[in-house]
Amino acid sequence: MAAENSFSTDAIRAGYNSEDHFHAVNPPIYQTASFDLGDIDRTRRLWTGAEGGGIYSRVGNPTGAVLEERFAKLEGGKAAVALSSGMAAMTYTLLLLGQGGGNIVSGSSLYGAAMLALIKFLPKYGITTKFVEDRNNPAAYEALIDENTKAVYLESVSNPNAELYDIDAIAEVAHKHNVPVVVDNTVATPYLYRPFEHGADITVYSATKEINGHGNTIAGLVVEKGGFDYDEKKFPQFYEKEWKMRDLKDVPRSAVEFLPGAPVIASLKIFYTEFLGGALGSFESFLVLQGLSTLSVRLDKKNETAKKIVEFLESREEVEFVRHPYAKGSPYKALADRDFPKGPGALISFGFKGNREQEGIFIKSLKNFSYHVNIGDVRSLITNPPENTHTELEPKYHKLADIPKNLIRLSIGLEDAEDLIEDLKQAFEKAFA
Ligand SMILES: Cc1ncc(COP(=O)(O)O)c(C=O)c1O
Hints:
globular, single chain, 5-stranded mixed sheet, 7-stranded mixed sheet, alpha/beta, Aspartate Aminotransferase, domain 2
């Protein structure tokens, strides 16, 4: 048997056979709304899933299929679906798990729109959220789980504070109550953190960030580990026989039969992209594949640079505190050492000691950091979360998520550390002149 390839090799090669694509070295961009079906027998095979291939790009396309297969391999999952944004990945997954109503038990330090989706959007569909205040304590998750809990949700590296959690222990309590664990692994990526090896059942991603890594497209991914035993009473959606999922003999099938081990991905592909749209376009899929091929080298450099930036920030009197697992006294250092052997990534937050006017001068004076809302770019980025990425949240949620008014977030890019440090230095000096 051939040896298993490493992560970096799979990031370049998995899920693609050039012979199936006119020997093109790069996965081609299938820029077409629909596909010739060939003949009526092939049509039948395509619609029943007996044969893979394009039908209509609202529900998927062959460029996206390469990304899905490659990413499922990298994550160590059974199957994946590529969607048009990270928010689609999150909301589709939770709408599906919460179908018919129920609650989500969620970590309380999340990306702003994700948090607001839980607070304001999902309740409109009968899905409420109980936020875990003591989010580092697995018992606090268990205390909120009840018979209507449909998922436990959290970010593996939280945005913006880079908090880490003992997901093994949280998954253990969730599984005790037969609740699947959904992890947003956007900041870490499967290169730095392996959610399925720590008990997660489903991962969701904004591939807009490190996965693509170049700040040039919006994309999302959902991956299912496979093997979670969905209780039929609690999750009837995976057991309903559907004509739309029928086999070649016209026998209706359920999601667990259509894609054994991956009923979530089956349902997202067959129903959600069909009715809500949102399959990732072929050009965007190509860009994500392109970015993904250099993920490991990008993150290796970013981990190194982030360490230096953390040390620099700690040396500055203009800085009230630094939040990163490698910051002095961080409560997350032990978890980083245990679960993030390559490093915990390049998201750093800090408290700015000056007033709002000085904060404005500081941000405006930077030349090597772009001021915007994104993270995980080749460029280094800076933002002020309370007025930006988390601005939609009421003050009580800022308090819950630990986002003080003076919080600044950095996403470290691929520039050299010395250039970034010099830039931060001169900006501090201007702001405090
Ligand atoms: C951790 C995290 N998850 C999800 C999202 C949403 O992703 P997208 O912007 O691709 O919809 C973001 C976006 O900033 C994020 O930071």
